[in-house]
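We both want to read discrete structure tokens more fluently, so let's practise on a single case. Once you have written the record down, we can walk along the chain together.
***
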Amino acid sequence: MGTYIAGAVASGSNGRSTGCWVDTAAFAGRRRMTEPDDTADNEGADPDESPVRILHIDPDETVRSRLRAVVQETDAADYEGTGATDRARERLSDGTFDILVVELDVPEDVAGLITGTDSPVVLYTGADPTEIPEAVLDASDTLVEKWTAEAGLEFVVEKILRAARSDGRSASRFTRAFERVDEDAQSSASFLVYDDGTVIWESTPLETLFDRRDVTVTLPETPNFYKQLSAALTHDPEAVRTIRGAEVPDEPTRFTVPAVGGEAYFRYSEHEFPETVGPLRLVVVEDVTWSERSAARFDLLDLLDRHVQDGISVVDANGRVEYHNESFADLLGYDDMVGEHAAAFMTEGELEAGQQLIQRLRGSDRDSGVIDMTLETAEGDERTFAVHFSVRGSGDEYEGLVNVARDVTDRRDRERSLEQYRRSVESAGDPMYVIDDEGRVAVCNDALVSLVDRSRESLAGTELTDLFPEEAVEQICEALERTTGGASATCGLTLSGADGEVRQFEATVAGLGDADAFDGAAGSVGILHEVTERERRESELDLLTQVLTRVLRHDVRTGLTVVRGQAEVLAERTSGEEREMAETIVDRSEALVETTEKARAIERVIESDEGTVTLDLRSVVNRGVANVSAVHSEASYDVRITEQVPVRAHRAFPYAVENLIENAVTHGEDAPSVTVAATTEDDTVVLRITDDGPGISEDELEVFENREETPLKHGTGVGLWLVNWVVDRSSGDLEFDTGPDGTTVTVRLDAGDAVDIT
């Protein structure tokens, strides 16, 4: 709209009147939703009005003391502060306070205090407005961000007094955001003003313009326009400087004035006349409240649209996307879906399911419904959404849908996992159970029902201690504590069956999902595999091993000693063929005795649970060579280890080294040669034992590589078994390289620290 002003000023030198067309269109500026409201002077307050009684809740004593000091400078209010809501409840129950000023950062239930009081409430807080619960905002009259400057505290007091003296509690900002704005209330006033502020003409008095907006500021009675307007802007020094400046402002100035129900917004602009007219200015004051409030509402709606996590979309009657928010685009991985048909993002069968829901809604008295739909992302992945449909249109006219979609893929996956657990449990042959988050049986199968001899109905909702003995439950809970990140753990259980027979079980337990902490057995699954027969067989094998060990250790060894002694006597008393036969008996009996000794050494290695120790490889090799050379003096030995070499190995490693040296001698010629050397490669020590014999037989190597003996391939190389087990217990590697010129055995071990040598 515009205002045409003509003939109201002195004529120019040519005698023609001067006119001016002034554009008074509404200013379309915006302000942030969290911007503090401008304050106003408290002039015009009724001196007979009783002081406003303020109750202030804030845990910060500094904030309370500073606000108290500002309140005490005015006679319009009395102040009491506290840091606890309990104290505030007591004071409010007395009915001795007119208004409650609250900081939300209070440990107690301050929200309940706000929503439960009938007194006006001012939120004077440093909290992020977007994080304040809607119920608290609805129950509050105004929101003021915390100030630190004294001038800001004066503004806070003005806001408190205005809220306390209002006729009724104002609507929340969310309610105001959707209220209709009366565009007809938009208006403006024009003034012809001399440089000294004298008004010679006005289209509408400034006071009348302000009254249309229920401005609460009282304007002074003065012919000076600038003084009159400045009196309404004491809270905005910058606007006052612009308006009262000597120069005409280049751009319009926006200012606010306190009004009933909020702030009134105005735009101020000046226009200079030609010098022939004189020192006159045309001042236009426009009421832009409607534009500002509309912009603020649009900002609020835009904020809600951008920050809501659910996907919002609108489709027309033909199923094409008319609008979607950023969240919906992000959920599916697209930049823009407007104009696309909704079916382009649906998996097979979902369009039909959605259309059927719409038909059911249109045939009923409902206009909305919820359905799970599987949509396809831009990457080709499938995600499950719970979609809330709202039908657009009135009567029989269908105009499309408004959709709100929430990604429930993870929830549906958990539900499917639980259903899979249920089916697996039901079909499993081993007893199985699922314990829910409350620590009660959620699922069990027939095998478990049979084991505990109870009906399925009686098991539902019971605790694990109702199924198993306390000791067994403790073992299950201890096993669960060893699981992390969805891994499982096992434990042994001894349970009595329905017939009273004691049975052994191996329980495998795990948490549901990725639980890393457990409250007893809550949120877990367990599978019980019966191992009664296995335990019985292992017990019998252990008993058999002990018997054979005693026989091998005592009876066989003693018998062989007797045989060898008798054979030695025969060899001394006979000659010729009989003597040779007796000597053969002596040799074989000695070999068998050595075999029993090696078997005993193997037994010690197998049963030993000791870790590795640090040994000096040079000392180990020297002792091994000394022991072997005492028996096989015909061989030559070349030890090429001159310095101390620390290695990490099992305590039985010296037996292994001695066996390797002995093996090299026994597989050699009449005068065999054995070389022993060691090198260090990074953190690894490499031991090599080389002989010049014909090499180890294929049968012996195959038995060693397969780590077992068979009836068809019976090796006598018990020493090689001992070597392999010791090296394996030492976390080392063992290699054989055999050929016509001899054999090289390579052992690799971790290097040790010399200070740890035992």
About this structure: Residues 610-756 form a domain with the Heat Shock Protein 90 fold (CATH 3.30.565.10). The radius of gyration is 48 Å. The longest strand covers residues 262-272. Residues 1-45, 168-186, 709-716 have pLDDT under 50 and may be disordered.
